[in-house]
Recover the amino acids of this structure.
């Protein structure tokens, strides 16, 4: 069985989202322990991950240091997060595999995702990145031309353009590495967004792709059987946060689309996960699972989490 595992920002940092290196290393050890458990079963695993906190922090550093060293564009920051997080995840996974006596090699691939130059996401920023700030501090940055949004209890967060991933340019390399037995970390942060010029050349564009939507495209391209979206809640929940809250178990893709239309899943958090799970199954995937990181073995071997299946299927 081939599994595409998407790790949320919650699985990559501590809950305050500040993304200190030590927090990220600790979180990577927890996450990769779960992945090493999974690798004790007969599965191929491709790992992708979020980069919202990290790419936002890099952007701030860039801006703060702009008078001293040349700033780099947002797509460069995204590429840097793929390398750094891949490095941290590989170290943690190698250690967890070694502990369990599992003989698998790991690899990280810098991965580009093709987007359309005229994607409406470029005109309306929607992707929250970086740290949370109180409203007054966010207001100052809004006056300097940035877009910030009220994200509830934790405060305000910067939002940037987030186009749709159309194709994972480097998916063939992921496929080849998986075929050769590697556990591959790929398409971090949803992929580095690139557009294709008329002459066929690719160039980076300033945006951050939703990693769950990127994961759905990658999962189909590398012929994954199961897409597992690991986050900090065990299930997608109907009437979330109310006394009528109802965790979803096994659900058909049509029913889940219906619940999404009724507004059960918040945009910028559970909404894209549900959308990604539906896209994967609608495109022919066997099943998609949304669950907590510590439930991912159950997600593969049993029925844990929210399990999205085709309308006619009982896979
Ligand atoms: N209907 C829902 N069911 C479950 N969780 C929801 C729902 N709507 C919003 N959420 C929120 O979505 C969060 C997970 O999304 P997010 O924070 O973006 O995850 P990650 O960083 O792991 O990708 C949960 O912690 C929960 O607060
Ligand atoms: N790129 C992305 O979706 O990152 P997060 O999951 O950290 O928001």
């Amino acid at each position: 069985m081939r599994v595409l595992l998407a790790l949320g920002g919650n699985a990559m940092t501590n809950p305050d989202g500040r993304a200190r290196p030590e927090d990220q290393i600790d979180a990577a050890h927890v996450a990769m322990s779960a992945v090493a458990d999974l690798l004790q079963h007969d599965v191929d695993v491709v790992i992708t991950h979020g980069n919202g906190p990290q790419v936002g922090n890099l952007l701030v550093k860039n801006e703060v240091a702009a008078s001293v060293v040349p700033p780099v564009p947002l797509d460069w920051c995204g590429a840097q997060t793929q390398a750094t997080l891949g490095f941290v995840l590989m170290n943690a996974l190698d250690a967890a595999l070694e502990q369990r006596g599992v003989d698998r090699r790991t690899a990280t691939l810098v991965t580009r995702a093709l987007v359309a130059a005229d994607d409406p996401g470029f005109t309306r920023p929607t992707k929250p990145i970086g740290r949370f700030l109180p409203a007054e501090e966010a207001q100052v940055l809004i006056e300097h031309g940035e877009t910030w949004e009220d994200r509830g209890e934790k405060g305000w967060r910067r939002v940037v353009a987030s186009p749709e991933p159309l194709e994972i340019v480097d998916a063939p390399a992921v496929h080849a590495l998986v075929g050769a037995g590697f556990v591959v970390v790929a398409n971090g942060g949803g992929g580095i967004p690139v557009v294709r010029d008329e002459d066929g050349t690719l160039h980076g564009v300033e945006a951050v792709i939703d990693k769950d939507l990127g994961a759905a495209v990658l999962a189909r391209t590398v012929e994954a059987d199961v897409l597992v979206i690991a986050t900090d809640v065990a299930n997608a929940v109907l009437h979330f946060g109310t006394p009528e809250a109802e965790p979803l178990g096994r659900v058909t893709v049509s029913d889940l689309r219906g619940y999404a239309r009724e507004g059960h899943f918040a945009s910028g958090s559970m909404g894209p996960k549900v959308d990604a799970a539906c896209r994967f199954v609608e495109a022919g995937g066997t099943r998609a699972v949304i669950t907590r990181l510590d439930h991912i073995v159950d997600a593969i071997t049993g029925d844990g989490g929210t399990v999205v299946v085709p309308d006619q299927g009982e896979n």
Q: What stands out?
A: The two ends are 13 Å apart (CA to CA). The mean pLDDT is 94. Residues 2-115+170-224 form a domain with the Carbamate kinase fold (CATH 3.40.1160.10).
